[in-house]
Design brief:
It contains six helices and nine strands, in the order ββαβαβαβββαβαβα. By secondary structure, the protein is of the alpha/beta class.
Length: about 220
């Protein structure tokens, strides 16, 4: 498959990850946010549904672990998907941690009726010899959401950079098979890592390519 973008160790493929993944070389880290309920309005308005109630995932959760094979894997997901992902990675002999991103600036939607939706789950899996640079760090990552989001569920650059640095060695390669607007790839580039992204919607491939073309980037 011809890459949509290929420059300085960063490659983007426009297509279905199920078709592209078998053709790719091995990587050191998979870092991705699977589609588990895209409910932000295109206009940027407040969400009208909980993510868990609008599951639009294109690849069944139980099929993901064998596709996302790497020494280290981070999968942001809905709470309903945590169990399937954990069981899948355990089946392949990986050590598992449930991680949480605690947003310091959550949406105020329905705050007068219930607790704010300020937490996102992430399943972390690693093999015995996987690279890991943090020492005795908590699995709760606390910080703000991304500014000027170009994708409804865009993760912040500070978080993607931290996870790339924690689990991908210098000179290593990162893969994001649900790339969105390219935050993971941009984080990898800023840290001097190689990266591969796959995205099924061409408009986000274009956005990601533009972000990666910027030599100086402010998050």
């Amino acid at each position: 498959m011809t890459p949509y973008y290929d420059r300085k160790g960063i490659t983007i493929y426009h297509g279905d990850c199920r078709e592209v993944l078998p053709t790719l070389p091995e990587v050191d880290l998979v870092l991705t946010d699977i589609p588990y309920g895209e409910v932000n309005r295109e206009s940027g308005g407040l969400r009208s549904l909980d993510k868990g109630a609008a599951d639009i995932i294109t690849v069944p959760t139980e099929h993901l672990p064998p596709l996302l094979r790497a020494p280290s894997v981070y999968v942001f997901c809905g709470t309903e998907q945590v169990s399937d992902l954990r069981k899948g990675f355990v089946f392949f002999g990986m050590t598992i941690r449930l991680c949480i991103w605690e947003k310091t600036n959550p949406s105020p939607m329905n705050g007068q009726y219930l607790w704010l939706s300020s937490l996102e789950a992430c399943v972390f899996a690693r093999t015995k010899k996987a690279y890991f640079s943090e020492n005795c760090a908590s699995a709760v990552w606390r910080g703000p959401t991304a500014r000027d989001q170009k994708h409804p569920t865009e993760k912040p650059g500070w978080l993607m950079r931290r996870l790339c640095a924690a689990s991908c060695p210098e000179g290593g390669a990162v893969l994001d098979p649900f790339m969105g607007s390219g935050t993971t790839l941009r984080a990898a580039k800023d840290l001097g890592r190689k990266a591969i992204g796959i995205e099924i919607e061409e408009r986000y491939c274009e956005i990601a390519a533009n972000r990666l073309s910027q030599e100086v980037f402010e998050w």
